[in-house]
Structures are given as structure tokens and as C-alpha cells.
UniProtKB/TrEMBL annotation:
PANTHER family membership: METHYLTETRAHYDROFOLATE:HOMOCYSTEINE METHYLTRANSFERASE RELATED, UROPORPHYRINOGEN DECARBOXYLASE
Record's function text: Catalyzes the decarboxylation of four acetate groups of uroporphyrinogen-III to yield coproporphyrinogen-III.
Domain Uroporphyrinogen decarboxylase (URO-D): 28-37, 150-166
Xref: CDD domains: URO-D (cd00717)
BP term (GO), one: heme biosynthetic process
UniProt xrefs under PROSITE patterns: UROD_1, UROD_2
Molecular function in Gene Ontology: uroporphyrinogen decarboxylase activity
Name by which UniProt lists this protein: Uroporphyrinogen decarboxylase
Length: 364
């Protein structure tokens, strides 16, 4: 296992400084799904390789992770390891396929309580997901300190929903039926998933991840009360267990939480041990500052569809977004991921607008 000393030293630590609330000469930026199908060079790799094969092959995962860093040289302040949140259900014993034009698909999802028996009793996370650790270590070396590297995981509720729905869903009716009908069994599955998540986060950190983002992409689908009952306790547990282990091992890696759509819970999300709360585009920046009381750094939150607009509109919206968040304790990002129809040039306009406007904001 690599230790901190073995990696090339970091030449751009803007994002780590923003997390700590330190002064930054410009606002750091990265975007969710910055590696992906909007990049012709990604599609080229994808033509010859199944999605999960890329995730499982450290050289390919590393190559694809670095594609946006190379293309937008000097404009991205973080990289994020190429992988998927659904590698956890796979490690727990469920089959997951990535179906062309449809997204993730579980041929045998968890439907009835009896199906829980199909999950492994104990998961050797470090063995099952060692390919992610190898990809992280390799990418840290290849990044050569250009910017820090994110590891990530799906949140317990979002993974629970995928395991029961068997894929994407408009209503999440099956997953919610479980919460209402089998609360005890639901908590058992959420806890089991949480235990795997904690091990997986720590493994990614030991392998070289310099920041961790937890994606609760379906957090906003729950009522505030259900979110407090079935998501928040596990998100809290993840942060406290990971932080306790980091203290013991002398590691210091900031934790980011992205609970898409969870507007009603921003106050809670800013007080359960995460350093950064990431916002989707339906949240007003100023309201988010009020709700989170400057306890955390905020990240976000341009509408991904803004990248379909003319360049002058992108620039104007970027200026307004940066002014609304302010230059401190802030990381610019989209409110959700890049989409296959986006043009890389539009992303470049977005990134340059952030660099140009934030350099002139003056937060000193
Ligand atoms: O660049 C990065 O941000 C890192 C890579 C990354 C991927 N998935 C690659 C990917 C990350 C961080 C994820 C997380 C992920 N995966 C989430 C959380 C973020 C979010 O979007 O809310 C979720 C919900 C998933 C599950 C998932 N994986 C879905 C719903 C899909 C289909 C999306 C679609 O548009 O079809 C995927 C597939 C996926 N994950 C792709 C990529 C690049 C596209 C698949 C392909 O190449 O065919």
C-alpha cells in the first residue's frame, strides 16, 4: 500500500484550501461526470470495452479519469476516479449490467424479504473492490500532482433504492414500499450497506484518494421525515466512523455529501460531520448559505442544461452564481452530472468563465 510520501507532491491544492475556508486566488471548479460520454476520447475507449470492464481495469479507469484533466489542462481543480456507485451492490453479491441506452440494470433485484438471503453474509470489501484501489493509486501517480483526486461512493439509501428497483425508476415505488412495509428489514439492509461503504471509503483513502464524495442521488425523493429516518442516520454514521478511523491512522481527507433534491435537509446535512455540502441546481445559493449557516463549504450548482446555452449566457449565469455564493468556502460545479449531449467546448466556456470571473472577485 502506498503511503502519502510516495506520491508526487500536489501543485494545485485550491480545492483543499477552499474546503478549509482558507483564502484562494480563484474559485476552484470540477464537474460531476467530467469523464464520460460527452467526450469523443471516452467514446473511443467505450467502443471497445464494456462499462464495468473499464471500471475493473485500473489502466483503463486511470486513462479515462485523466481524459478531462488532459483536455481541459489547467482548468479543472480536481479529478474523480472513474467508477460507479453500483460496484457496491456487485460486491455484496448482486449482478449489475450497464445496458446501452437504458442505464444500470439488475437482472435479479431484491424484491421480497426472502431475497436478502442472496446477499453475502460478510463482504471482503478490500478483496472485492481492490481494482478500485489499484486504479486510485495508479491515477495518483499519473496525475503527478496536477490536482487532487476524489474517491466516491453511493449513499446507503440510493444504493438500497437501486438494489430494490433493479435500475432507474420515476417513482421509486418498490423501494418506498419496503420502507413503509418492512422498516426493520429496510434498516437491516441499510446498515449492511453502510458497513460496506465505510470499509470502501477507508480503502480508497488508504489507496490515495484525497477527497471523498458520497452521492445520495435519490435523497430528494424521500419526504423530509423519511430522509431523516432512512438516510441521515446512515450518512451520519459514515462520517463519524470514517473520521474516527482517519484520526487513528493519521489521515485527513475531507468528506463531501451530495444529497440531490434534499432541500429541506440542508441544515441537518451541514451538521453531521461532512466538510462540504454539494447542491443541485434547484437550490438558491443564498438560501443554502442561510440554511447551512457557514458551517460547511458549499459546492455547486449550475443547471447542467446551461451548457446548451450560447457562450454569453453561460458567462452571465456563471458570474451571477459566483457572486451569489461568494468567493470563500465555495467550490464551483454543476448541480448534477455532464450529459451525453453536451459539447466539450461548452464545458470549456463554463470553466474559463469561472476562472476569469473569480480571479477578479477579490476575496482577500
Ligand atoms: O467523472 C465522474 O464523475 C466519475 C465517474 C462516475 C460515473 N458514475 C461514471 C458513469 C460517477 C461519480 C458516477 C456516479 C453514479 N453512478 C451516480 C451518482 C451520481 C448521479 O448521477 O447522481 C449514479 C446515480 C450512478 C448510477 C449510474 N451509472 C447511472 C444512473 C448511469 C446511467 C447514466 C446515463 O446517463 O445513462 C450510470 C452509467 C455511467 N456511470 C456512465 C458513466 C460515464 C455512462 C455509462 C456508459 O459509458 O455507457
Amino acid at each position: 500500500m502506498k503511503t502519502k510520501r510516495d506520491f508526487p507532491s500536489l501543485k494545485n491544492d485550491l480545492i483543499l484550501r477552499a474546503v478549509k475556508g482558507e483564502e484562494v486566488e480563484r474559485i476552484p471548479v470540477w464537474v460531476m461526470r467530467q469523464a464520460g460520454r460527452y467526450l469523443p476520447e471516452y467514446l473511443e475507449v467505450r467502443k471497445q470495452n464494456d462499462f464495468f470492464k473499464i471500471c475493473r481495469t485500473p489502466e483503463l479507469a486511470c486513462k479515462v479519469t485523466l481524459q478531462p484533466i488532459d483536455r481541459f489542462a489547467g482548468l479543472l481543480d480536481a479529478s474523480i476516479i472513474f467508477c460507479d456507485i453500483l460496484v457496491i451492490p456487485q460486491a455484496m453479491g448482486l449482478e449489475v449490467q450497464m445496458v446501452e441506452g437504458k442505464g444500470p440494470h439488475f437482472p435479479h433485484p431484491i424484491r421480497v424479504v426472502e431475497d436478502l438471503k442472496r446477499l453475502k453474509d460478510t463482504v471482503d470489501v478490500d478483496k472485492e473492490l481492490s481494482y478500485v484501489y489499484e486504479a486510485i493509486t495508479l491515477t495518483r501517480i499519473k496525475l503527478d500532482g496536477r490536482c487532487p483526486l476524489f474517491g466516491f461512493v453511493g449513499a446507503p439509501w440510493t444504493l438500497f433504492a437501486y438494489m430494490i428497483e433493479g435500475g432507474g425508476s420515476k417513482t421509486l415505488s418498490k423501494a418506498k414500499t419496503w420502507l413503509y412495509t418492512y422498516p426493520k428489514e429496510s434498516h437491516r439492509l441499510l446498515q449492511k450497506t453502510t458497513d460496506v461503504i465505510v470499509d470502501f471509503i477507508l480503502g480508497q483513502i488508504r489507496a490515495g484518494a484525497q477527497m471523498i464524495q458520497v452521492f445520495d442521488s435519490w435523497g430528494g425523493e424521500l419526504t423530509p421525515k423519511m430522509f431523516r429516518t432512512f438516510s441521515v442516520p446512515y450518512l451520519t454514521q459514515i462520517a463519524s466512523r470514517v473520521k474516527a478511523a482517519m484520526v487513528e491512522e493519521g489521515l485527513q481527507v475531507p468528506l463531501f455529501i451530495f444529497a440531490k433534491g434534499a432541500h429541506a435537509s440542508l441544515d441537518i446535512l451541514s451538521s453531521i460531520g461532512y466538510d462540504v455540502v454539494s447542491l443541485d441546481c434547484t437550490i438558491d445559493p443564498k438560501q443554502a448559505r442561510i440554511d447551512t449557516k457557514w458551517r460547511v463549504t458549499l459546492q455547486g450548482n449550475a443547471d447542467p442544461n446551461l451548457l446548451y446555452a450560447p457562450a454569453d449566457v453561460i458567462k452571465k449565469e456563471v458570474r451571477e452564481m459566483l457572486n451569489a455564493f461568494g468567493a470563500n468556502n465555495y467550490i464551483a460545479n454543476l448541480g448534477h452530472g455532464m450529459m451525453p449531449g453536451h459539447s466539450p467546448d461548452a464545458l470549456k466556456v463554463f470553466l474559463e468563465a469561472i476562472r476569469d470571473h473569480s480571479s477578479s472577485m477579490g476575496n482577500k
